Amino acid sequence: MKIVKEALAGTLESSDLLVKVSPAAGDGLDVVISSEVMQQFGAQIEQVVRDTLNALGVTDGLVVVEDKGALDCAIRARVQTAVLRGAEVQTFNWSALS
Amino acid sequence: MTDDFEFYAVDPAASPDERHAIRQLLTRCGLDYEEHIQVFVACRHEGRLVACAGLESNIVKCCAIEPDLRGGSLSLTLLSEVVHLAYERGHSHLFLYTRPENVSFFQGCGFYPLAEVPGYVTLMENTPVGIRSYCDRLRTKRIAGAKIGAIVINANPFTLGHQYLVRLAAAQCDWLHLFVVSEDVSFVSYRDRYALVEQGVQGIERLTLHHGSQYMVSRATFPDYFFKEKGVVGDCCTAIDLLLFRRYIAPALGITHRFVGTEPFCETTRKYNADMKYWLQTADAAAPAVTVIEEARTRAGGTPISASEVRRLLRSRDVDRIRALVPSATFELLQDKYMPKIVPFVPDLAGAAGEPDAVPRRAVAAGV
Amino acid sequence: MKLRRSMLFLPGANAAMLSTAFVYKPDSIMFDLEDAVSLREKDAARLLVFHALRLPVYRGIETVVRINPLNTPFGHADLEAVVRAGVDVVRLPKTDSAEDVEVLEREVERIERACGREVGSTRLMAAIESASGVINALSIAKASPRLIGIALAGFDYVMDMQTERGDGTELFYARCAVLHAARAAKIDAFDVVWSDLNDEAGFLKEVDLIKRLGFNGKSLINPRQIELLHNAFAPTEEEVDYARRVVAAAIEGERKGLGVVSLNGKMVDAPVIDHARRVLQRAEASGTRK
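^ inputs. structure came back:
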């Protein structure tokens, strides 16, 4: 899936996260995570984000995450929403979202 | 399970009642209403307007929450809503000004500090990679040398005065970086301004021409609105712009000197040049100092050449005198494109609608 | 016999609520993709609910999702998401006729087959929100074997009736009609939400009314209402005592292979035994009434 425009999903509320995606400036995927629990869970959050992007076939772009202590399921949902919005995709393969 | 905070967008120009309520809320919170805001996110709780946040293009302004509702999650929801609204309106790169004591709150909302005038104000942007990737791009154009110069011009339009300053600076430096202000709100469009500069500096050696950016003489870096009525206009209005230059742009390109033309008549310009010396050279900043060199403007027929003079002559259709102040490419463009555009409708545009010129207004007043 | 006294509404777009609502222990949890979600957030809410449904913490609790009507741009995608995610019950809003349920059922079956879910395992409930819906309540209630219940939704209904919410007079006919249809079809009946959180006395008065009418339960918008409702539905000590004796007699009768159950020399009918079992179920769930 290719990110073709800037897009946003989520909120800054507690237990949620804000995800911003932008088309790639160069090649590759740039994932930037900021979290209140960066010390404890930064690596895990990044893994969930990257796995989710990978399942959607996103290989290029900038993904910025402002995490507010969200559960993994919320991270997946917000990343997917932002990517689908940024890729301007309406129909997709549900199994890639599991 | 629901919360009873209702958020919605308000066009202040179209809704006088909402505008009035927002103004009252801002007053209760000790803030001024900003006339240039195009849209607000408003929040009502039990019918009462309890929070708002405005957008002037990509700048978040007038964030306020009723004092008795602060400290909870409302502020985070408010910021989320205004960021979503900005995206819907096509603005993803956002800026905001806040007092330094509020920086940590906005950091929790996904904003990152760019520059601070200690004790007064901090400029923040909503991305952790904005200025970083901008500087990364600049660094690819870095040229080694002992004396690396920079000039920032709006070139509205490009005159023989600009050309003279560029030539003079280039001759003194190992390399010169020339930036054209990219905020497209000037009388002459950015496209045209850039093209005229490009033609006008052809043949000048050891020079790189750059597009401007949000981080340089833009609506975002000149917070004139913020300081109005706060009594700190003189000290701070140029500081953020200059601190950004010193802290990020100059180190990325290895710039050691910044060149600027004098303006013998204008007090504001003298003040701006003095500010430039202060913030680039003197003020305590983490980044190394940049030496400011003021060059006397070149003259035509005894008068210093300035872009504002050219625009004044344009309004009075004084074609012959314009010809003496600008390169031929500028003259042709003005004659073909801009003269027919303004003269038939508004004989005195300045009087009718104010200066049809560059925002940020302070930057223009300062003769950038 | 599934106990369905409390059905807690959760706005589908709210990540924090979706992540924590299981702690309140309502009988059913209802994720809302319809009215509680703004147009801008329909896609986001659908994905949040999709993932929330798969959380292990929701395995022990009945999950319901109110989808958008199938004639909107969102309904079909909502359905696709929640059936695939394994929702227990799909709640269809604005049900006006049996045909609405039949269309939904065909669509659910198609998705079940496509994703490999057992056909028939997705249950349905229909919300009745209009005069037509109330008139057609019986045919709606009997429209599909997947239906676990029908619910009255008050706000839209009173608008359609050109009145507004008041002391309950405005819902009198609709409550009776929906309840009779549900009982005739042998499925559950759910009452409207009570939206004034500050009026606890009003809430309890309404709960008492719908309990006496015979509703199984009520849709709730705030977790604070759960305990109040469960307590109001809890039987008294005397009711529990009597129910225990009825059930004991029934077990005894069954053990002895008697065709007839008797208590204190009087014959006890099957409906009385069923009722006694429900009383004990409620007592087991939340004790006796305080």
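The longest strand of chain A covers residues 29-35. The domain at 7-92 of chain A is CATH 3.30.230.10 (Ribosomal Protein S5; domain 2).
thumbs up if we can close this ticket
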